[in-house]
């Protein structure tokens, strides 16, 4: 993969695509993620968004926070809408009915709209090879509708549909390895990002735009309301997610070439999950000694996944 | 190419049509893909993974300003259902051919109108066709109607599954240039445009949602006038027009058969035979179900003693069946209200031969003598 043609310094100077006054919660990482995405843009762009926090809070009629063309249709179809947009743009250009040589099309969904309900549409879009960048901002649950568990919810996480109780430690199942599943479609470009490592984020997003065919960006997005975490510590939590290994940063090219990104590559040893859990109310129940075996299993699982990833990336 | 298949529409409208979104369901899809493969149409085709995505991609493409069409039926249409409402409310002038078929369960591939009636409140204009020629003509006109700036609504063109979708009959095709001239290029009102960024499909809550619906309703009621205009223009170049409904020997009729789609042909043949026997029978073959031309229907019914409805859908637990509900409401305010008799027929592709109409006719005569009829009943089914 070639380096992006524009320097990070120039990208950081770009006008923001989301205006202030949007109604996202204090401490939510999603607007920061959109801001970083905006810095990576390279020309005319259209955003197709799935129903979710970002959608409802930025476009409460008659107001909008979006400074670039934006469309929302439903929860599970952002990828399909994007397919329509890109194909229509292409054919209209061919017929001389569009003034744009090229328009970048970005689809955005939360983890509910991406890991779960919109999964089929994404798979279809990937298979059709549409030149769309799909970005998921993953806050680990259906936060918009009241913190229900999703396929992205972490094991041990308490949500309103995976309660921690006398006999249950929150969600028991693993998180769906979505970036890997997308890569398995032989997708030209897949990358995981987080808002703390903003340079890594912007450079990867730019690569995603520049690659021919579909690209997928998995952005980790802390949610103080759902996670019961301090609004001032969201970016710190994003950093920790990388350090504890639940959101390692890497790229996958054509589903085959796995590349560990700098911040993850520099990790000598994973930070214990305990430290990440300690900052969030949604894991508070795990302090109970009765869950010590469960916690150990979770730590083992993360360690195992981390070793596997390193192997794929040819490290050690 | 299969003569009579509405796919030929896409063929001749080809260069004006920008984009088609298809899931493999009908020969419309297969033949259009063949045209594309042979370079006979300059149209982008998106072979989507589901009907839900088909309608979603249509909305995305239409939002850019493309002229967009898709086709589906039955279960596929049911899967689209959520996005049908979005397409209409977001005012996307998509043309949607529906080969009307039964809904599961039991799974069944044959004709009835359950799918069309299932989407009746979605905000789509609904036009049901009787013949292959009418399907061809209506599909061409549908683009002009949908894209009319006073309308801007998606249009469903209904063709009876198999009976019409797989029918083989002669169709008079229009020269490509004529269709180009008739339709022109779509002139989108507010497309997604990087130089003029807008937000489409926002959240509208208690303070604004209702106004969106109010506007949508008004647009729907601008359809009859726009439709007349489109038909007049079409008639000028082809000599053909269909009206919102077809009125057949109703002037002095005591009993009027009211039906949609291909049943209209059978009904007219039955009326001819009964007329020969001295029975005063007429037929209204309804084409436009949404918006429902209630005043015009009431006027066409005139002084008839009974309206005998034949319809291919049920609304379980309702007062009566979908078409009969509309007709009863349309006739409620007339001074001399005729008796309304409703027969549900042909579900799951059960044949509706002329004898079924005659059976219904005899029953209606008896109901008139008694002065009373059931709100609906089924015909042609084991009981």
Report on this model:
The complex is a heterodimer of chains A (316) and B (383). Chain A is an alpha/beta fold. Chain A has a single domain, classed as Rossmann fold (3-Layer(aba) Sandwich). Chain A contains 13 helices and 8 strands. Chain B has helices at 7-12, 27-37, 51-64, 74-89, 114-118, 132-147, 176-183, 209-221, 223-238, 263-276, 294-301, 322-331, 354-370; strands at residues 19-22, 44-47, 68-72, 95-100, 125-128, 155-160, 199-200, 245-248, 255-260, 281-286, 288-290, 306-311, 339-344, 377-378. Chain B is globular and about 70 Å long. In chain B, helix 2 (27-37) links the parallel strand 1 and strand 2. Chain B is an alpha/beta fold and 383 residues long. Chain B folds into 2 domains: 7-238, Thiamin diphosphate (ThDP)-binding fold, Pyr/PP domains (Rossmann fold), CATH 3.40.50.970; 245-378, Rossmann fold (3-Layer(aba) Sandwich), CATH 3.40.50.920. Helix content of chain B is 40%, strand content 17%. Strand 2 of chain A pairs parallel with strand 7 of chain B, so a sheet runs across the interface.
Q: How many H/I helices of chain A?
A: 13
CATH superfamily of the largest domain in chain B: Thiamin diphosphate (ThDP)-binding fold, Pyr/PP domains
Beta-strand content of chain A: 5-15%
CATH fold topology of the largest domain in chain B: Rossmann fold
Provide a concise account of the structure shown.
The complex is a heterodimer of chains A (316) and B (383). Chain A has 316 residues and is α/β, with parallel strands linked by helices.
Provide key terms for this protein.
heterodimer; A: 316 residues; Rossmann fold; B: 383 residues; alpha/beta; 2 domains; seven-stranded mixed β-sheet; 13 helices; 14 strands
């Amino acid at each position: 993969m070639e380096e992006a043609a524009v320097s990070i310094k120039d990208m950081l100077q770009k006008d923001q695509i989301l205006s202030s006054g949007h109604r996202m919660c204090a401490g939510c990482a999603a607007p920061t993620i959109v801001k970083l995405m905006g810095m990576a843009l390279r020309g005319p762009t259209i955003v197709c968004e799935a129903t979710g926090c970002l959608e409802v809070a930025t476009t409460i009629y008659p107001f909008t926070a979006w400074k670039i063309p934006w469309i929302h249709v439903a929860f599970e179809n952002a990828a399909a809408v994007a397919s329509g947009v890109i194909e229509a743009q292409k054919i209209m250009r061919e017929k001389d009915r569009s003034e744009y040589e090229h328009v970048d099309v970005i689809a955005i969904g939360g983890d509910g709209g991406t890991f779960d309900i919109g999964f089929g549409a994404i798979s279809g879009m990937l298979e059709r090879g549409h030149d769309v960048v799909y970005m998921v901002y993953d806050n680990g649950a259906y936060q918009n509708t009241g913190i229900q568990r999703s396929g992205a919810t972490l094991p041990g996480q308490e949500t309103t549909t995976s309660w921690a109780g006398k006999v249950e430690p929150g969600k028991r199942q693993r998180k769906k390895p979505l970036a890997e599943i997308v890569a398995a479609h032989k997708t030209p470009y897949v990358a995981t990002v987080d808002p703390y490592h903003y340079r890594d984020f912007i450079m990867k997003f730019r690569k995603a735009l520049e690659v021919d065919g579909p690209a997928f960006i998995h952005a980790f997005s802390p949610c103080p309301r759902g996670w019961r975490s301090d609004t001032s510590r969201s970016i710190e939590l994003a950093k920790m997610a990388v350090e504890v290994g639940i959101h390692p940063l890497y790229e996958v090219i054509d589903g085959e070439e796995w590349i560990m990104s700098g911040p993850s590559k520099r990790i000598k040893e994973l930070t214990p999950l305990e430290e990440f859990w300690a900052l969030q109310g949604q894991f508070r129940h795990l302090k109970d000694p009765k869950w010590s075996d469960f916690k150990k299993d979770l730590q083992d699982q993360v360690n195992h996944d981390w070793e596997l990833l390193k192997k794929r990336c040819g490290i050690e | 190419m299969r003569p009579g298949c509405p796919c030929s529409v896409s063929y001749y409208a080809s260069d004006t049509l920008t984009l088609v979104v298809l899931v493999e369901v009908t020969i419309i899809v297969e033949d259009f893909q063949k045209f594309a493969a042979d370079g006979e149409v300059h149209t982008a085709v998106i072979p989507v993974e589901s009907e839900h995505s088909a309608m979603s991609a249509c909305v995305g493409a239409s939002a850019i300003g493309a002229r967009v069409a898709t086709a589906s039926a039955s279960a596929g249409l049911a899967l689209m259902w959520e996005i049908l409402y979005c397409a209409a409310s977001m005012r996307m002038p998509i043309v949607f051919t529906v080969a009307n078929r039964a809904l599961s369960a039991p799974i069944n591939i044959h004709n009835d109108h359950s799918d069309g009636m299932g989407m009746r409140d979605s905000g789509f204009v609904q036009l049901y066709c009787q013949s292959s020629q009418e399907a061809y003509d209506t599909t061409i006109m549908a683009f002009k109607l949908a894209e009319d700036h006073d309308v801007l609504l998606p249009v469903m063109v209904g063709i009876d599954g198999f009976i019409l979708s797989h029918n083989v009959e002669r169709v008079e095709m229009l020269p490509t240039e004529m269709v180009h001239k008739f339709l022109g290029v779509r002139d989108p009102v507010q497309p997604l445009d990087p130089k003029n960024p807008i937000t489409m499909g926002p959240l509208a809550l208690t303070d604004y949602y209702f106004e969106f619906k109010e506007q949508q309703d008004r647009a729907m009621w601008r359809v009859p006038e726009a439709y007349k205009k489109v038909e007049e223009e079409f008639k000028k170049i082809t000599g053909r027009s269909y009206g919102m409904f077809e009125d057949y020997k109703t002037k002095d009729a005591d009993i009027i058969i009211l039906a949609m789609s291909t049943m209209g042909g059978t009904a007219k043949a039955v009326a001819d035979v009964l007329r020969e026997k001295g029975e005063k029978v007429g037929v209204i073959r309804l084409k436009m179900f949404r918006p429902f031309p209630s005043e015009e229907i009431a006027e066409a019914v005139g002084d008839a003693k009974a309206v005998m409805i034949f319809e291919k859908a049920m609304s379980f637990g309702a007062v009566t069946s979908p078409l009969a509900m509309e007709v009863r409401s349309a006739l409620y305010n007339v001074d001399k209200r005729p008796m309304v008799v409703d027969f549900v027929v042909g579900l799951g592709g059960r044949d509706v031969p002329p004898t079924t109409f005659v059976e219904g006719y005899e029953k209606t005569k008896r109901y008139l003598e008694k002065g009373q009829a059931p709100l609906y009943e089924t015909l042609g089914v084991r009981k």
